[in-house]
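Hey Z.,

So I finally got round to the 2-amino-3-ketobutyric acid thing we talked about over coffee. Here's the setup:
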Amino acid sequence: MEYRYSDGGLSKMSKDDMKRILVTGSTGQIGSELTVELRKRYGNDNVVAAGHRRKPSETLVSTGPYETIDVTKREEIERVVKKYDIDTIYHMAAVLSGVGEQKPLLCWDVNMNGLHNILEIAREHSLTRVFCPSSIAVFGPETPNENTPQDTILKPTTMYGVTKVAGELLGNYYVKRFGVDVRGIRYPGIISSETLPGGGTTDYAVEIFYAAIKEKKYTCFVKEDTVLPMMYMPDCIKGTIQLMEADFSKLKHHADFNLASMSFSAKELADEIKKHIPDFICDYKPDFRQEIADSWPRTIDDSAAREEWGWKPDYDLSRMVEDMIEKLTVKYEKGLI
Ligand code: AKB
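And the result:
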C-alpha cells in the first residue's frame, strides 16, 4: 500500500485541480444551495449531486447529474467517484444534533462510518481535496463560551458533537498521515430560505421565519435568552468555497476552522422579525434541545480563518432578517411555502 505524505505535493495543488466535484448530502439545507453555486462556478456537468433519504428538488436533478448514495456503503460512493472521475468531494451528508440525540447509533454510523468511507476513497483514489463540515457542537459545557478560541477544550455532551470532534481529528490525521487535503469549518447555526434544515438544535432560527410569515406566531423550543452563533447561507456558501480554494501552504489548521458571523438571542431574533411583521408573536417552550443549546458557545473567535484564508462575513442580524423576509414573502405569495 502506498501512502502520500503531507509534504508530498499537496502545496502544489491549486483550485484548478478541482474539476470534477461530488456533493454528498446535496438534498440537505447547505448541500442544496452549495451544489447550485458550485455548478455555476465549475460547470453543471462537473458537479454531481448525491442524496439518500430526501427527495431531490427539481433544480438539483434538472441542472446536472444526480445520484443516490448511502454514505455508509463504501461501494456506492466508489461507484460514483469512478463513473464521473471525481477529484473533489464536499461531504455534506450528516445526522444533526437533535436527531442525533434521539438516534445516537444512527448518528455514529452515518457521521463516522460515512466520513471514514469518504476519506479512505480520497486516499485510495488520490483525490485533490475533501471538505468535511464540522460544527460548534464540538464544544461542550467546559469550553469557554464567550469568544470561544480556535484551539480549546473539546468535550461535547452530544453524540453529534462526539462524531464531529472525532471527524475533525480523523480529517487532520488523514492530512498528516496520508497527505489527503481535508478541510473543514465548524459551522454555526445556518439560516436559509431555500431548503429547511432537518433535525438540528439551531433549526428554530429558520422555522421562526416560516411561522412568522405564514401564521404570525411561533413557539420557540429554546428559552428567549438563549444566545447562539448563527450565519446566513450566502456567507456559509462563500466561506465554504473560499476555504476549499485557499492556498494549502497558508493553512495551519485543516479540518477544524472556527467561523463566526453573528450571535443573537432567540428574543433578539423575534424582535428583529417584529420590525417587519409587527403583529408577530413568539412564545417559548424549551424542549430537550435547550440542554444542547446551553452546552454550546455564545460567541466564536474566528481569527484563524481570517488570518489563514481571509474569511470575512457580509451579513449581520438586520441584513439577514430583511433578506429572509423578502425572499420568503415572495415564496409565500406564489404559494410555494
Ligand atoms: C445543529 O443544530 O445540529 C446544526 C449545527 C450547529 O451543527 N445546525
